[in-house]
Amino acid sequence: MDANASARLKRRIATVAHRVGLFLAMLVICLPGLWIVLSSLRPTVEIMAKPPVWIPQQVSFDAYVAMFSGVGKGGIPVLDYFRNSLIISITSTVIAIAIGMAGGYAFARHRFRGKSAMFLGLMLTRTVPGIALSLPLFFVYAKLDIIDTHFGLILAYVALNVPFTIWLIDGFFRQVPKDLAEAAQIDGCTRWQAFWQVEFPLAGPGIASSGIFAFLTSWNEFALASQLTRSINSKTLPVGLLDYTAEFTIDWRGMCALAVVMIVPALLLTFIVQKHLVGGLTSGAVKG
Amino acid sequence: MATVSLKKLTKRYGTMEIVHGIDLDVGDREFIALVGPSGCGKSTTLRMIAGLEEISGGTIEIGERVVNDLPPRSRNISMVFQSYALYPHMTVRENLGFSLKIAGVAKEETDRRVAEASAILGLDALLERRPSQLSGGQRQRVAMGRAIVRDPDVFLFDEPLSNLDAKLRTQMRTEIKKLHAKVKSTVIYVTHDQVEAMTLADRIVIMREGYIEQVGTPDEVFKRPATRFVAGFIGSPPMNLHEATVADGRLVFSGGGSLPLPGRFKATVSAGDKVVFGLRPDDLYPVGHGLQSGDAADVHELELPVTVTEPLGNETLVFSEFDGRDWVSRMLNPKPLKAGDRVAMSFDLSQAHLFSAETGKSLRT
């Protein structure tokens, strides 16, 4: 009995320790986000105060009101930036997913010469920091006259995302047993039908999550966008943050407010899509 | 329903040849089992018939129509996979009706045929479930149902029972046999389990390393194995096979022990020939504990020490040492024996087999 009681006690202590650990970890992860939201609601004096003021003394939505009230009244062309961000992120994500699906499927299902070398090559492109490419990219884009266009940024983001989406989607197609596509072919499907009827629905959740990654990468990217955009023609939200920096001052509150405006759609999208990311959909396809 | 005919069927991967020009004719409504150890090419052969694997040479005919380059959907076959390959995102009903949906069959007709198949296989209560909610045996039945619904010319089974536990396997084996009796179709069934092959098939094709070793009824391959390999592969426990040399009308084994040369082989072998002697466990038994199949004159008795016994209830497998090696025998109406006991053993030589040591071919006349 004693041994049982002490084992039970140990298990309880472990559970509590586990939860406390999780709470601390989540605190570290969430605190910056929370701080941004708080900072967008209070005056700069409070933001810059040392020691920090934890509980805001004055809360106001002035920064948000100002942001949308137009140029000259402390505002920035946030709707234009938002539109640009949306067009560029969605288009580049759709293209990256389409290429990623074709590439990932080929890597997962077919054997061909130079396959591993090609795969490694795709991965190696990820090792080059984007910022290192920005100068050469700038020259090339300048020659092609595609600086400050949606097309230019979409092209850059597709190139940035494709290796990653191929790699992710390859993994998801690998998890769909090959037998299923073969069974579908025997059941009367063409290769194409077997893909859309059986393999695609099963890899769907994985493809959706690759889509989220690609979208967020494009949505949040700053380094390349700051080089390749100039005006409201193509400036995205992250680049728009710079509008709050003047020669001698930085409007931290406005910047934080814009950051919140940026985060909300990304958060919503992730929340909506993740509900469809039902795991374990393939369980029960094969074996017992 | 249809016949299937393979002519000089070959499969190569690069320079490696896996299936070496095999010939096989499967009759209408015949149940054929392809059996052999792993890597013998049986699954590859089945996949070539299904159209899932391109052929490198030869022809495949289904119902007297050459289908060499036709895609699987144009061959009017159905296949049950080892992994069942049920579509996890569809219910049992959708799984069963999938092929009809693809073929554009009207909904009423689809419903009727799904109901028919589900009645045959007892799936009525499971129609709205998904594969993940089914047990292994139920998934197996759904996989078979999906095959039936198509009403194909030929059923292909690729080791359908090997993921099931022993008890369920026996049960499903019986169901497959009943099913074949009901739907009366041509079946090609791949298995590595010789018991499955023996119990189910009208004819058995034994394959080894991409060649067909023997084609015959279960009785034929058991009683008259064409090669040493077939003799060792078919039957459980396997046949006792030991190399010997013919000398003075006797078979002399490597350890010096000898047995008389069975009379019926006297014309086919001569002194000095190297042969492999084969005797099934059923034809080697402690005196009085077996069934004598031939002439009493052909029964040879020897007293041998027992090394191991394996009691099975109604019979006991007795391993006894002769010529420095273990020989397995089947003792009917068993009496208790223990290791070290000396027992008089009957060698029923009328049932013995001889194979050429060089080619492995049977030397029967």
UniProtKB/TrEMBL annotation, chain A:
<dbReference type="Pfam" id="PF00528">
    <property type="entry name" value="BPD_transp_1"/>
</dbReference>
<dbReference type="InterPro" id="IPR000515">
    <property type="entry name" value="MetI-like"/>
</dbReference>
<feature type="transmembrane region" description="Helical">
    <location>
        <begin position="194"/>
        <end position="216"/>
    </location>
</feature>
<feature type="transmembrane region" description="Helical">
    <location>
        <begin position="86"/>
        <end position="107"/>
    </location>
</feature>
<keyword id="KW-1003">Cell membrane</keyword>
<keyword id="KW-0812">Transmembrane</keyword>
<keyword id="KW-1133">Transmembrane helix</keyword>
<feature type="transmembrane region" description="Helical">
    <location>
        <begin position="252"/>
        <end position="273"/>
    </location>
</feature>
<dbReference type="InterPro" id="IPR050901">
    <property type="entry name" value="BP-dep_ABC_trans_perm"/>
</dbReference>
<dbReference type="InterPro" id="IPR035906">
    <property type="entry name" value="MetI-like_sf"/>
</dbReference>
<comment type="similarity">
    <text>Belongs to the binding-protein-dependent transport system permease family.</text>
</comment>
<feature type="domain" description="ABC transmembrane type-1">
    <location>
        <begin position="82"/>
        <end position="273"/>
    </location>
</feature>
<keyword id="KW-0813">Transport</keyword>
<protein>
    <submittedName>
        <fullName>Carbohydrate ABC transporter permease</fullName>
    </submittedName>
</protein>
<feature type="transmembrane region" description="Helical">
    <location>
        <begin position="154"/>
        <end position="173"/>
    </location>
</feature>
<feature type="transmembrane region" description="Helical">
    <location>
        <begin position="119"/>
        <end position="142"/>
    </location>
</feature>
<feature type="transmembrane region" description="Helical">
    <location>
        <begin position="20"/>
        <end position="38"/>
    </location>
</feature>
<keyword id="KW-0472">Membrane</keyword>
TrEMBL record, chain B:
<keyword id="KW-0067">ATP-binding</keyword>
<keyword id="KW-0547">Nucleotide-binding</keyword>
<dbReference type="Pfam" id="PF17912">
    <property type="entry name" value="OB_MalK"/>
</dbReference>
<dbReference type="InterPro" id="IPR012340">
    <property type="entry name" value="NA-bd_OB-fold"/>
</dbReference>
<dbReference type="InterPro" id="IPR017871">
    <property type="entry name" value="ABC_transporter-like_CS"/>
</dbReference>
<feature type="domain" description="ABC transporter">
    <location>
        <begin position="4"/>
        <end position="234"/>
    </location>
</feature>
<dbReference type="InterPro" id="IPR015855">
    <property type="entry name" value="ABC_transpr_MalK-like"/>
</dbReference>
<comment type="similarity">
    <text>Belongs to the ABC transporter superfamily.</text>
</comment>
<dbReference type="InterPro" id="IPR027417">
    <property type="entry name" value="P-loop_NTPase"/>
</dbReference>
<protein>
    <submittedName>
        <fullName>Sn-glycerol-3-phosphate ABC transporter ATP-binding protein UgpC</fullName>
    </submittedName>
</protein>
<keyword id="KW-0813">Transport</keyword>
<dbReference type="InterPro" id="IPR047641">
    <property type="entry name" value="ABC_transpr_MalK/UgpC-like"/>
</dbReference>
<dbReference type="InterPro" id="IPR003593">
    <property type="entry name" value="AAA+_ATPase"/>
</dbReference>
<dbReference type="InterPro" id="IPR040582">
    <property type="entry name" value="OB_MalK-like"/>
</dbReference>
<dbReference type="InterPro" id="IPR008995">
    <property type="entry name" value="Mo/tungstate-bd_C_term_dom"/>
</dbReference>
<dbReference type="Pfam" id="PF00005">
    <property type="entry name" value="ABC_tran"/>
</dbReference>
<dbReference type="GO" id="GO:0005524">
    <property type="term" value="F:ATP binding"/>
</dbReference>
<dbReference type="InterPro" id="IPR003439">
    <property type="entry name" value="ABC_transporter-like_ATP-bd"/>
</dbReference>
